[in-house]
Design a protein that fits this description.
The protein is built from eight helices and nine strands. It is an alpha/beta fold. Bound molecules: adenine (ADE).
Length: 291
């Protein structure tokens, strides 16, 4: 997180004055950066996660920074549970009187070869990332946005070339992007815009702690393959999110903004491939066409 004294949003100070926002997974990493942007621009921001105590701690820490908006903790919410989501959305609407902005940032996955992913593991990742995002959108729409309009941003991850080593998550996130395409048409008459931000490999302390040695692999092997030759910052993601949420993006719905330093357009070495594969050849190939 940037130091308080150096943090300055590129957006207008009162951009979200009077607006109520909900950011899932808003206590750490990219989510926290989104919360900082929104609160610094005047919004009341509710953060949710499974661990309510951590949410309160994060809210206290952020409020101490003295933003013009404020940050509040929501009730403990497991986005795999429909009842938790229904309660979270009704809590926000009842307590704060509105739900103008929803950012679906909570998500999770684990690194595994696809061949080793169990049905239960696959289901857990799809339930968290795809079903959880759907239920959050549906409840926000049914409980508030259908009658009042609103703006939703779903945070996905790079999935243009699949994601070897985290197939389940990339498949679920591609599903979120496709779901967004359907919802943007169904909900436009309610003045609801819904978009996605698709981050590439972003450096956050919490993210790199989670991935352990894989984090080191990212730095050594992937950074040199990225067109930008560096990772992204959480603030580079949150400023894209804020733009999509603001009125200046009034004609933008159903879109996916990639914040990835061009990483979607090159093959990233997410997993190591042996020097020689036994892929059979059909037709003529000169020896020099092989390793
Ligand atoms: N972050 C990761 N998994 C989650 C879940 N099931 N509910 C809420 N936040 C999460």
């Amino acid at each position: 997180m940037p130091e308080e004294s150096t943090w300055r949003s590129v957006f207008r100070n009162d951009l979200f004055k009077g607006k109520v926002a909900l950011v899932s997974g808003g206590g750490t990493g990219i989510g926290k950066s989104i919360v900082i942007e929104l609160a610094s621009l005047g919004a009341t921001v509710v953060i949710s996660s499974r661990n309510e105590e951590k949410c309160h701690k994060a809210a206290d820490e952020l409020n101490a920074l003295g933003f013009s908006g404020k940050v509040a903790a929501g009730p403990s919410t497991n986005i795999r549970k429909e009842e938790d989501i229904q309660k979270l959305i009704s809590h926000v609407v009842e307590r704060y009187g509105a739900l103008d902005i929803l950012v679906n940032n909570a998500g999770g996955q684990f690194i595994s070869d696809s061949a080793d992913i169990s049905k239960r593991g696959f289901q857990a990742v799809v339930e968290t990332n795809l079903q959880g995002t759907f239920l959050m959108c549906r409840e926000a729409f049914n409980q508030y946005m259908r009658d009042n309009g609103g703006s939703i941003v779903n945070i996905t991850i790079g999935n243009r070339n699949g994601m070897p080593g985290m197939m389940h998550s990339a498949a679920a996130r591609a599903g979120v992007e496709n779901m967004t395409a359907s919802l943007c048409v169904e909900w436009i008459e309610s003045k609801v815009r819904i978009n996605c931000v698709r981050p590439g490999i972003i450096f956050t302390e919490s993210g790199f702690e989670n991935y352990g040695p894989a984090g080191e692999y990212f730095l050594e092997k992937i950074v040199p393959s990225l067109p930008a030759k560096r990772l992204g910052s959480a603030e580079e993601v949150s400023s894209a999110v804020v733009w999509l949420l603001c009125e200046g993006a009034g004609y933008v719905t159903g879109s996916v903004i990639c914040v990835d330093g061009g990483g979607s357009y090159v093959a990233l070495p997410l997993v190591e491939i042996e020097d020689k594969t036994n892929l059979p050849t059909y037709g003529y190939l000169p020896m020099k066409a092989k390793l």
